[in-house]
């Protein structure tokens, strides 16, 4: 089995598969590390301890922690986006990269998108593995701490080089040719 070195000072669960046959591992939000300068039409708020990720109840949050609202969350307005840190730093094996992909449940239920999907973590990157979330829905949503916000998948980089040709006719002919955008039909 391939091993990936990970630095995790946060105590948040390491990414793991939701089921044994899942293709990717779920990565979680670490809101202790969120930086307000990476909140665009989004803000850090505090909610009741039993609140869940989803559509925000505007009567139940404050801008500062209190006994009634102790839990940090991120409120993302429609079309807003935020860089959500994971608290994890990794050393990927040589010749590998990591893809960060969206979670289908967050996308379907709340319109949460990954702006640069899939995100790409290069082999030589050692910073926090963050996820850029966007609210593609019509209502304000909240993301709570430790929520599963994306999926990561390790992928092999295959080295290749270019073999330049002189004309378009030097490329092999196929039935599709240069047809794109629905050229193969929809059924």
Any overview of this molecule?
The protein has 187 residues and is mainly beta. It has one domain (20-158): Deoxyuridine triphosphatase (dUTPase) (Deoxyuridine 5'-Triphosphate Nucleotidohydrolase, Chain A). The protein is 4% helix and 36% strand. It has one helix at 104-110, and strands at residues 5-7, 25-28, 39-47, 54-55, 61-62, 71-84, 89-91, 96-101, 112-114, 119-121, 131-135, 141-144, 148-156. The strands form 3 sheets. Strands 3, 4, 5, 6, 9, 11 and 12 form a 7-stranded antiparallel β-sheet that branches. Strands 2-13-8-10 form a 4-stranded antiparallel β-sheet, with no helix packed on it. The mean pLDDT is 91.
Outline:
The chain has one helix spanning 104-110; strands at residues 5-7, 25-28, 39-47, 54-55, 61-62, 71-84, 89-91, 96-101, 112-114, 119-121, 131-135, 141-144, 148-156. By secondary structure, it is mostly beta strands. The protein has a single domain, classed as Deoxyuridine triphosphatase (dUTPase) (Deoxyuridine 5'-Triphosphate Nucleotidohydrolase, Chain A, Distorted Sandwich), CATH 2.70.40.
Blueprint of the fold:
Blueprint: E1 5-7, E2 25-28, E3 39-47, E4 54-55, E5 61-62, E6 71-84, E7 89-91, E8 96-101, H1 104-110, E9 112-114, E10 119-121, E11 131-135, E12 141-144, E13 148-156
Antiparallel strand pairs: 1-7, 2-13, 3-5, 3-6, 4-12, 6-11, 6-12, 8-10, 8-13, 9-11
Number of domains: 1
The name of the CATH topology is Deoxyuridine 5'-Triphosphate Nucleotidohydrolase, Chain A
Shape: globular
Please give the CATH architecture.
Distorted Sandwich
Mean pLDDT: 91
Strand percentage, roughly? 35-45%
